[in-house]
Specification:
Blueprint (H helix, E strand, L loop, with lengths): L3 H15 L2 E8 L5 E3 L4 H8 L4 E7 L2 E6 L4 E5 L4 E4 L9 E9 L14 E6 L5 E5 L2 H5 L13 H9 L5 H6 L9 H11 L12 H20 L41 E5 L2 E5 L19
Parallel strand pairs: 2-9
Antiparallel strand pairs: 1-7, 3-4, 4-5, 5-9, 6-8, 7-8, 10-11
Helix pairs in contact: 1-7, 4-7, 6-7
The chain binds a DNA duplex (16 and 16 nucleotides) through loops.
Amino acid sequence: MPELPEVETIVGDLRPHLEGRVIADVQVSWPRTIAEPVEDAGRFCAGVVGRQIVRVGRRGKLVWLCLDDGQSILIHLRMSGRLVLQPVQSGRHLRVTFALASARALPDDGGEPEYDYLYFYDQRKFGRIWLTTDAVRMLALLGPEPLASEFTPGELAVRLAKRRGALKPLLLNQRVIAGLGNIYADEALFCAGLHPRRAANTLSEQEIVRLHAAIQGVLQQAVRLHGTTFDGLFVRPGGEEGRHQEGLRVYGQAGLPCTRCGTPIERIVVGGRGTHICPRCQPLTRERAGKQGACR
DNA sequence: CTATGGCCCTGGTTGC
DNA sequence: TGCAACCAGGGCCATA
């Protein structure tokens, strides 16, 4: 389940191989992957073939390819989407293939090897790809980038203040903050010592500062380690795994002792999502236990 | 606004 | 052993 750190890793890996390349051809083997123009592989192909990729970026969990005519390709990996430069052994789960050409002859001292294809694999078929002339307007619907300087404790406070609902579903809402998914929402709440069912508008200023620092700290650490490979769902474009899985404190750790207090980690359901907590470090009623936050 | 539940999907796990 | 039921998960949508 690629979230912000995994998508950041993918984008960094792809950038040197894609920027400057021309899309020579596209094959769509599962048309529902194409979200815009809606399930229309033909118009999608017609729109991108011959275009040069001028920039590879990320916004929230979206991979953002800027084309030389002002259009953008947006790719959401959802649960099981993968972007790879070398074909996986079996062609199973292959949904879209981009054939790549060079914009100009390569210098012979080369540098990066040139790949001929970019493959989009997606076992569960939840991934989607958009072609749009107005990426900026689409992306404006997302909340702030949690690692950008605009994302301050004050900004977080404003976004939580009006909400009476539980904290965790809010953190997963991409219009509130862009890029958090189930793994990092659970990890951030643990690090902040906050219960996922706490009503968002009941946080003290100190708790908001702690949550802000936890979100940034958890994401930065995961980016540094190139994401979390859990269930083998996330693999980098070159085939390597992420290294953050060893750093998980609560996600997928049910039954194991809390790294901070030894209490067994529990799995509960919040907002319909599996949620992992330390019941002692993340009390629902405000007591001393979570005061300092659970990280470091 | 908030909560809940369904839908899209597959493949691994569980239950009989 | 074989097969059916169930579940996870991100985002979106409908309903209450």
